[in-house]
Amino acid sequence: MKKGKVDALLGIVFGDEGKGKVVDVFTPKYDIVARFAGGPNAGHTIIFEGKKFVLRSIPSGIFAEDKVNIIGNGCVIAPDLFMQEARELETAGYDLRSRLHISRRAHLILPTHRVLDRAYEAAKGKNKVGTTGKGIGPTYSEKASRTGLRVGDILENFEQKYQALKARHEETLRHLGYTDYDISEEERLWMEGVSYMRTFPLTDTEVEINRALAEGKNVLAEGAQGTMLDIDHGTYPFVSSSNTVCGGVCTGLGVPPSAIGEVFGIFKAYSTRVGAGPFPVELFDETGDRIREIGHEYGAVTGRNRRCGWVDLVALRYAIMVNGVTQLIMMKSDVLDTFPTIKACVAYEKNGVTTADMPYDTEGWQAVYEELPGWQTDLTGMTSEAEFPQAFKDYVAYLERHLEVPITILSVGPDRAQTIIRG
Ligand code: GDP
Ligand code: IMO
Ligand code: MG
Question: Measured from the CB, is residue 224 less than 6 Å from ligand 2?
Fold first, then answer.
């Protein structure tokens, strides 16, 4: 029998590209949808039939009742937030128990990891990363230090293991002089979340996925964050703490590179970034404010203002390279509907040096732009490529020329239905 494939859908800029929406649209074509990295730092929005959901740890394939969804070994999971998220879906009528499987190898985010996240940020003074405060960095650090707790640990002697790790965290916090916190209520909910999690299938998801592939089934790997937030390839140290790139699919799900099929790279028709760090295309003017307002660019997890700017071809080319992107998906095209001109960043410039390649030191670069005419037409009601105004078609063709990868899907609104698959 022909083996199945793992297609990857990856954010290729600074996250919030619209991954949740497209995973939901793609789900009918797959047997399994799996998250391979990150945790509740993610906020993936899905809108259909007048309903809106923001998922953090649960894959966006959960709305198709007959599909298995997996939280893979590369993820980190907070039991209290997981319980809250899962209960919201249960209240909305979705049955999760039989089709949401969690890897026993995924790491647990403890309440004290979240306190440590805040403490480390406070200690950084002006160089704060601007994390989501969900304990992501401390949990992945603990994984690398080989002192972390995994989902499988909740099945045996858990209280003892938890108390020992918590005590170590408290000691670190004392050393940092960070003692003004109270997690008692949080901890109660967290423990309730642990009991709740025990009622789900906690499995060896890598075996399950590989077995499915051997049976000819197909898997969609749902990325979190984006390539520029990848721990190795992003704008370090202003990054998240996991591998968000395609290589992370293999390690985060336990699948071989030969199983990877299509690599979908998802980006917006413009750029955003939430949190601190270099962002050469950032607009500090009225145009930036307009993009934020029209695009509702406020964080799905933290509510923070997202920084906005024009599309960044330097970052996109770099991300296409490290991920091996085979198809591009452009989101939020409609947000630029009213702009008379559109810009695209084609290179970076610093101290008289111009580069079209992603520099090692991403600080202090200015964007070099090319300008294109805007389409000044409402795209939101369009249902086929044939309806697109010429200036929009030209913008898409311009991006494809620079990026050398086809843009096969265009999104013209937040709803599931506002998605145009090009023929
Ligand atoms: P993710 O983290 O990559 O899943 O993206 P987020 O959910 O954090 O952010 C994307 C936001 O854009 C959400 O509020 C979506 O509802 C919205 N969205 C997605 N696609 C489109 C689109 O084509 N047009 C508009 N206007 N909004 C969109
Ligand atoms: P989705 O999956 C956008 C950013 C944070 C911060 C940095 C590190 O919804 O696209 P962390 O809490 O991970 O240690 O924060 O990464 N960040 C995101 N930005 N979208 C996300 O996820 C993000 N997850 C983390 O703002 O700058
Ligand atoms: Mg998001």
Answer: yes
CA of 215 to the centre of ligand 3 (A): 33
- The percentage of residues in the chain with a pLDDT greater than 90, rounded to a whole number, is 96
CA distance 54 to 156: 32
Amino acid at 150: R
- 226-280 residue pLDDT tens: 999 999 999 999 999 999 999 999 999 999 999 999 999 999 999 999 999 999 9
User: Helices (H) and strands (E) in the chain — how many of each?
Assistant: 11, 20
Residue 52: its H or E element: strand 51-55
- Mark whether 296 is an active-site residue: no
**Which residue has the least CA distance to atom 2 on ligand 1?**
16
Residue 98 phi, psi dihedral angles, 5° rounding? -85, -15
Decide if pLDDT at 419 tops 80.
yes
Residue 300 has pLDDT above 80, yes or no: no
Pocket residue to mutate for ligand 1, from 240, 291, 331, 416, most atoms within 8 A of Cβ: 331
Tokens of 72: 């893979």
Average pLDDT, the chain: 97
16 counts as catalytic = yes
For position 423, what pLDDT does the model report? Answer: 77
List alpha helices for 238-389, DSSP H.
Answer: 247-253, 286-294, 313-323
- pTM given for the model: 0.97
Distance CA 373, CA 341 (A): 5
How far is residue 265's CA from residue 248's CA, in Å, rounded to a whole number? 14
